[in-house]
Structures are given as structure tokens and as C-alpha cells.
Design brief:
Order of helices and strands: EHEHHEHEEHEHEHEHEEHHHH
CATH superfamily of the largest domain: Isopropylmalate Dehydrogenase
Largest sheet: 10 strands, mixed
CATH architecture of the largest domain: 3-Layer(aba) Sandwich
Number of helices: 12
Shape: globular
Radius of gyration: 18 Å
Number of domains: 2
CATH topology of the largest domain: Isopropylmalate Dehydrogenase
Structural class: alpha/beta
Strand order of the largest sheet: 2-1-3-10-9-4-5-8-6-7
CATH class of the largest domain: Alpha Beta
Number of strands: 10
Length: 300
Amino acid sequence: MTVKRVACLAGDGVGPELMAAATRALDRVSKLHQLELDDRHLPFGGEAVTRSGHPLPLATRTGYREADAILVASPHEPALDGVKADLHLSWHVARVHGTPTRDLIVAGPVGSWANDTAIARAFECAAARRGRILSVGESGDWRAAVERERANWDGLVVEEAKLGETLVRLREKPDTVDVIVTEAHLLNALVDAAAAFAGSHATVAHAWLPDEGPGVFAPGASEPDDVAGFGVVDPMGMLFTTSLMLAEGLKSRSASRTLERAVGAASRRTTRDTNSFTDAVIELLPQSRTDVEHFDQVSA
């Protein structure tokens, strides 16, 4: 069995509590799906400055470059920009949870040079989900790239819309949108709008992914550091991020869906203090596994 390495960058503040919740859930779901994981906790950001005087020491940079995926618990830590600059990232995907059982994917390139890569990955994602994708872009190069990729797929419902039309649809008919692929300069606006209509940025999970090598995964928001150490940090966004990492970073979509279902079920039956919520998620993992193992090979 191949061992998958996860570089865990907790940082300081509420980061260690969120990372502890994520690694507890990751340990249980990986055993349930017979995944062999090696999670390596590396000094990062303020934590690394305290230890070594630098937010990204050499040992940390070496550690995450050798990993299969990089999980970050402190999304607003300035050192995260250094991590992303250190890697060959080409596309960005955000998963926005409107309800515990309903989510939306927004994907796009990090720059226009990566249009083809982002579009291809978004089409793959749509094929593994509900078979629907909405392209939002107005440049000729973008439309041409979408048409080239569309020719490679049979059975997908491919729609095109402008930004304004898409914003209205997200507000009034969100259930009709599943995967959005958009140009780089529109991506953040669409993610922000989807999160606002969903009611919270706390349930947004982000990933920045390369053609080859480790991707970076971080929640869309975190709580202020002054609540650190009191056990009241809501880990839901971090656990949704861990689910996204399983799907897009480690290519275990079945494990990802198990964790995602468990987080959604736990959100309906417990308060969101750190330990009790994570305990509820772990308890719900076995009954949240309703898929089959060959799904990973089919859709990876």
C-alpha cells in the first residue's frame, strides 16, 4: 500500500486546535478506507518564528515539497503566500457549502496561462459529481478553450453565462449550479458571492493545485486568535477542507465523501465547540460511508 504524506502547517493562534481536529478525523477516515497516511507537522508562520526566527525555515520548505498534499490551518498567515510561491501552482478550486448536504465548486486558473489546465480539471470534477458545469468568462481565448475541452466529453451538460447572470442565479436558483469554471480575474468574486449567499465564509474550503506535485489546502476563514485555547473554535470549515484535500490532493474521493457526509450530519446534531464536534464527526464516519471503493479508480 502506497503511503501518502501530508504536510500539516498549523501555525499559531487557533491553528493548532484546528489542525488537531483535522488530523484526528483524517486518521479515522483513512483507516476506514484503508489509506496509509503519514502526517508531518512542520513549523509554520508565527510558530516557526518563535522556534527559529523565520516563518518558513528550510526544514519546513523541504518537508512540504516532499509531501503529496499540504494542509494549512491558518489561512490568513502571511507565510502562506510564501508556500504558494514556492510551488508550481496552476489552478484554484473552492468548495462552498450552502447547507450541510449541498455544496458548490468554483474553479479557475491562477493566471490566463493555465486556462487549459483549469478547464480540464473542472470538467473532470463535474464528471465525478452531477455532470453539470457552468462556464463564466467573456474573452475569446477563454471561450475557445472551453469549446476545445467540451469536445472531449460526452454526456456533460455545459452552460455558459456572464458574471452578472451567474450572480443572479447563485442568489435565486443556487440548486441549478454545481460546478463553475471561470477566468482567473473573476474567481474570487464568484467564491465570495457564493459564500455570501450561502450565509458564511466559514464553510468554504480552498485548494491551489499544480500540474504535478503537492497542492495547498486551507479553510476560507478562521476565528480570531483571542479565542485560542478555550476549546470553542468551530472546526467545521477545517474538516471540510480536509475532505477537499482527500479528494483533490490524495485522489481518494470515497474517503472525501465519507468525511464530508459526517461533517454535514454532525452539524445538525451538536454544538460546534472543537472537541465535541470532532467527536461527533468521528462517531458518524462509519455510517456516512455509502460509496464503493472502485469509485476512486473510476473518477481519479
